Amino acid sequence: MSTRTALDLSLYLVTDATLCGPRGVASVVAGAVAGGVRVVQLRDKSADAATMLAQLEELAGVIDGRAVLLLNDRLDVVVAARERGVPVDGVHLGQRDDTVLEARELLGADAIVGLTANHPTHLAAVERMPRGSVDYLGVGVIHPTKTKPDHPPALGVDGFARFARAAELPCVAIGGITLDDVGPLRAAGAAGVAVVSALCAASDPRDAAARFAAAWGER
After folding, report:
1. 181 is known to lie in a ligand binding site
2. Is 42 annotated as a binding residue?
């Protein structure tokens, strides 16, 4: 079974080195994965390629196949990591990053390629791509958040629901999400929730992740 076939987007962690603090990203990821995180996206806008490559290798060891490992933006680093045998599953791209088609060509059919989307024009662009080019959409922000100061206007749960209904791909909600948002977002059609502060800044990332996982599982 390929990683794409088994993709579980329900609880998705986006890392933030500043919020993780002195304990480090790997420690937070270890706890969060133990608590139920299913996807880890390494995001570090300030790191150079060599640093990100080393971080990917460290996180792959910590995760040990228990969650999907993606890198934000840097397709070149993902390619380099795979050439070194690091089990990184794919890449998440923004609207201004390397093109999705290039990522699919370089990483192959079984890699996971995610794309940030929050506007109807983004959906139209995806619809023009060959089927299978993108695996999921990261949609937000849901609420204003300090972790991405240049974010677009907040969608709220209702705005997310409208976007998800119009999308053919699974939509992961992101941006200022708290525990109380999980149920409403799932009811609104989310394939998962992506969190940053709620896990990276948590005193106990494992417990925080377990609470999010439990909230997702409630019907």
Report:
1. no
2. yes
36 has a pLDDT exceeding 60: yes
Nearest Cα to 53, choosing from 25, 19, 77? 77
Is 176 known as a binding-site position?
yes
pTM of the model: 0.95
Rg (CA), the chain: 16
Q: Considering only the top CATH level, what class is 11-217?
A: alpha beta
95-150 pLDDT, tens digit per residue, is 987 799 999 999 999 999 999 999 999 999 999 999 999 999 999 999 988 776 66
Question: What residue ranges do the domains of the chain occupy?
Answer: 11-217
Beta pairing, strands 11-14 & 192-195: parallel
Query: What would the pLDDT profile of 162-176 be if each residue is shown by its tens digit?
Result: 999 999 999 999 999
User: Following CA atoms 181, 184, 185, 188 in sequence, which dihedral angle do they give, to the nearest 10 degrees?
Assistant: -160
Q: What is the pLDDT of residue 146?
A: 73
**116 belongs to an annotated ligand binding site:** yes
- 148 labeled binding residue: yes
44 labeled binding residue = yes
Is 51 annotated as a binding-site member? Answer: no
